[in-house]
Amino acid sequence: MSYRIAIGIFALAVAASLPLAAQGRGGRGGGAAQTPKAAAPVDLTGYWVSIVNEDWRYRMVVPPKGDYMGVPMTAAAARVADAWDPAKDEASGDICKAFGAPAILRQPEHLRITWQDDQTLKLETDTVTQTRLFHFGDWKAPAGPPSLQGDSTASWETTGVKSLKVSTSHLKAGYLRKNGVPYSENATMVEYFDVLKEADNSTMLVATIVITDPLYLREPFIITSHFRKQDSDAGWTPTPCSARW
After folding, report:
1. The pTM is what?
2. Is residue 236 part of a domain?
3. How many distinct structural domains can be found in the chain?
4. What is the pLDDT of residues 67-100, one digit of tens each?
5. Contact partners, residue 91, CB within 8 Å, separation at least 6
6. Whether 3 contacts 196, CB under 8 Å
7. DSSP of 62-125, one letter per residue?
8. Does the residue 124 lie in any domain?
9. Residue 30 domain-assigned?
10. Which ranges constitute the DSSP H helices of 118-204?
11. C-alpha–C-alpha distance, residues 42 and 163, integer Å
């Protein structure tokens, strides 16, 4: 689909030319600045379900060890992935390593997106019951250790394609894929969330994800995930983490 190619090229160009920080935007023009919620150029709220139309074998099942096709891994990353052992993750209590922010939108799942407040958009997943918060404005991350979902700042992009831009850092190390393909605590992400209307009048959410990791990636890793909007919470089934699926 042409929009996927265009968005991927656009995301790569932005990632290469701009620092990974939120580009703050105010309201839509003159007068008092609107809150990010009021100024939203697209509506992301509601329930969404994954449409797994690419990389089925990496997303619907756990791929075998050594199947790393498509990921621009460094030699260091290959060594880590070759040593992957889910039993060790279970023993150490790290059973959620495949469900951090860089990988969570690749899961077959449902999303629930709501406004936590006028400055914060909340994205929840029923797969392994994760929550991401997208903070607008001059929000500052609190001190503390890296976390599975990291710290995310957000801004509305209104030039050209209207979308939500999210920049994420301060991530706990984890897996890009369920078979141990790693990302490090140095990894950062830029995401673009676009809402599109399909020919059948359904509404699609396209998440373009650009992951940069100087330790484990030779170049930015760009992936897209697609979701269809639902009229209700049908299918919403929160589940716990697992190191084996």
Report:
1. 0.86
2. no
3. 1
4. 999 999 999 999 999 999 999 999 999 999 999 9
5. none
6. yes
7. -PPTT--TT--B-HHHHHHHHT--HHHHHHHT-TTGGGSHHHHTTSS-EEEEEEEETTEEEEEE
8. yes
9. no
10. none
11. 7
Contacts (Cβ under 8 Å, ≥6 apart) of 213: 183, 184, 186, 187, 188, 221
Closest alpha carbon to 149 in 97, 85, 192: 97
Q: Both tokens of residue 213?
A: 């990791």
Determine contact, residues 76/183, Cβ cutoff 8 Å: no
Q: Give the domain extent around 223.
A: 2-16+45-230
Tokens of 99: 């469900």
Q: Tokens for 11, please give them.
A: 């995301």
Tokens of 81: 């992935």
Contacts of 2 (CB under 8 A, 6+ apart): none
Distance CA 52, CA 205 (A): 13
Strand partners, 131: 124
pLDDT of residue 132: 98
Residue 193 lies in a domain: yes
